[in-house]
Amino acid sequence: MHPFASYVLRSYYKATGWNEDNLYANLTRSSNALLDFSVPKGLHISISKSPNPLFKTTYSMNALPSLNGSVGYIFTSCNLDVKGSGDVRFKDMVDRFKIFDQPRRPEGKEEEWLAGERVDSRDYLLYGRIYIPTGRLDALYSTRLTPTLQAMVAAISDPRAPISSERSRGHGPSSNIMFSLQQDTGKWCTEYTWSAEDGMWGIRSLYNFGKVGPSTESMQSDSEKAGHASAGRRSGLKRVDEEDAMEGGLKGRLSIGGEFYFSAKEKSAGVSTGIRFTTVPDATPPSFQVPSSSSPLTGQTPRGPPSQPPTTITALFNPMLGHISGAYAARVSRDLSLASRFDFNVYSYESEWSIGAEWWQRRGKVWPPSLPTHAEPLSAVSEVADEVQGVVKAKVSTTTDISLLWEGRLRNVLVSLGVVSNLSSRSKPIKSIGLELSYFSSG
Fold first, then answer.
1. By the number of CB atoms within 10 A of the CB, which of 89, 150, 199, 246 ranks highest?
2. How many CB atoms within 10 Å of residue 386?
3. Residues near 142 by Cβ (< 8 Å), separated by ≥ 6?
4. Within 13 A of 206's CA, how many CA atoms are on the CB side?
5. What is the pTM of this model?
6. Which pLDDT tens digit goes with each residue over 182-211?
7. Residue 379's pLDDT is what?
């Protein structure tokens, strides 16, 4: 379950038109959602409030196994449509398998002029959280410098950190500040980072082959044209982002990237490279399908099987550590997704094989009292008619660990319940079990 602060941050990216899925760090996000999901430990309770569209507060408490908590505040320069936990789209609150939208060049903020002078300011987000009783402080500042350039500053202040530069391995995180500069042009996405703790410089870059998607404005224009075009010129639904036809096999996009970092303090360096294949057409709005005027708007939406299963294939290689990883994830039905990953080290010959799955639970079909009007999109009708109520995730690996997680909504509270077990251990077959409750409101 995403913390409230992460939900607000993603809403901020969405409001400002920034595509975080185009970063090299998120290359394996689809498979990680099924294979590396986090299971809560103990009892965790969080309550958040959005008194106005610009300011948010969040409070959390861990009751088991130890008692501690935190208080956080978030401020944004732009209004965010942050919903309450009772009416927020459930899929926006959990990590899940999905085919990410086609890369697009980010758009800048509309210019505002007053008396011949430009008065608009760049968007930014401020976030701070203090942990009790440790006194640790986390801070984040994100701002949009240009339409394709974003800057971030993240800081940690821990009073428990030792004053000397030499730290023991068992000690907690020390104070640190990190600067990040991200540039996204759609085709290329590059991230430059610097960490003050160990003087580490890093660069990550991702290149997308194929076509770059149109801007949001052009997509809206195409949708309007499609709605006013004559019915004789086309029928059914029009796909707006398909690549040129290819005979046989899976049809999709290819992305390749890498990272390099160097620590001046530790006198060490690292490098890794990765590749990702993703099928098209995209299975997520807004580029999946747009309705045409020739297709009548009814309470039912097309449920036919796709021409090819939504699939993501990734491979990572770290030559300095000798680590090789390959993952395959696909949606085999509307509510079931499967993933598999194999990790191997060429130096130690250690290997691990993991498989994971997610299954969506839906409420029975409850049709609205009246048919939708032409102004209502088909996606809104689908959400009302078939609402997602929860998801079950499971993971099994050769390390003999089995993880089970259920995430759902009970009335207005988001609930996450999970367990991690080791069936090979007779003395302690249950390694951990946890329950997480999250409630937030707006207005």
1. 150
2. 15
3. 9, 12, 124, 125, 150, 151, 152, 153
4. 26
5. 0.81
6. 999 999 999 999 999 889 999 999 999 987
7. 47
Contact between 62 and 435 under an 8 Å Cβ cutoff? The reply is no
Tokens 């870059």 locate to: 205
Task: Write the single-letter amino acid at 175.
Answer: S
Residue 405's nearest CA partner among 44, 91, 45, 39 is: 39
The model's pLDDT over 58-107, given as tens digits with 9 standing for 90+, comes to 999 998 888 999 999 999 999 898 999 999 999 999 999 988 878 888 88
Say which residues have a Cβ less than 8 Å from residue 262's Cβ, sequence separation at least 6: 200, 201, 202, 268, 269, 270
In angstroms, rounded to a whole number, what is the distance separating the alpha carbons of residues 110 and 107? 9
Average pLDDT (429-441) is 93
| Residue 142, beta-bridge partner list | 125, 152
Q: Would you place residue 118 in the very low, low, confident or very high pLDDT band (cuts 50, 70, 90)?
A: low
